[in-house]
Amino acid sequence: MLTALWELASASAREIHDRVGKPRDLVYTTTAKVLDRLCAKGLVSRKRSGKAFIYEPKVERQRVERARARAMLVRLLGQEPRPAIATLVEAVEAIDPRLIDDLARAVDARRKRRHGP
Predict the structure, then answer these.
(1) pTM
(2) Residue 76 contacts by C-beta under 8 Å, 6 or more apart in sequence?
(3) Main-chain dihedrals φ then ψ at residue 105, nearest 5 degrees
(4) How many Å apart are CA 100 and CA 71, to the nearest integer?
(5) What is the pLDDT of residues 70-113, one digit of tens each?
(6) What does the DSSP assignment read for 24-85?
(7) Cβ atoms within 10 A of the Cβ of 27, count?
(8) Residue 72 burial by Cβ neighbours in a 10 Å radius (0-12, 13-18, 19+)
(9) How crowded is residue 3: how many other Cβ atoms within 10 Å of its Cβ?
């Protein structure tokens, strides 16, 4: 539902339900409850417009996607990530050896930003 709000910029619960809830066979109250929870967590804001609430995202999509990626990597790599990273590098190289060069450039750029030139 947050994805739909990022795409729409702002929307009522009914609009979100029509876009996300109905295609998933959710009842309207489920959509409204999820939006209320997102609001309680500080991810969206809402303001009354007549009898309805209009919801808007409070966090940037990129920030949430970065946090999700980090959480996924922690779960994937576990407590001792070195062996998993080595395996990941091998898998990336098997997919496309040029991706290793892209990864090396990304690592170098990150180091320069962190430590300076």
Answers:
(1) 0.65
(2) 84
(3) -65, -40
(4) 23
(5) 999 888 888 888 998 899 899 999 999 999 999 999 999 999 99
(6) GT--HHHHHHHHHHHHHTTSEEEEEETTEEEEEE-S-HHHHHHHHHHHHHHHHH-S--HHHH
(7) 11
(8) exposed
(9) 13
Report residue 91: phi and psi, to 5°: -65, -40
Give CA separation, 64 vs 61, 71, 87, in Å.
5, 11, 27
**CB distance 55 to 35 below 8 Å:** yes
Residue 54 tokens read as 């209009």
Angle at 80 between CA 75 and CA 83, to 5 degrees: 100
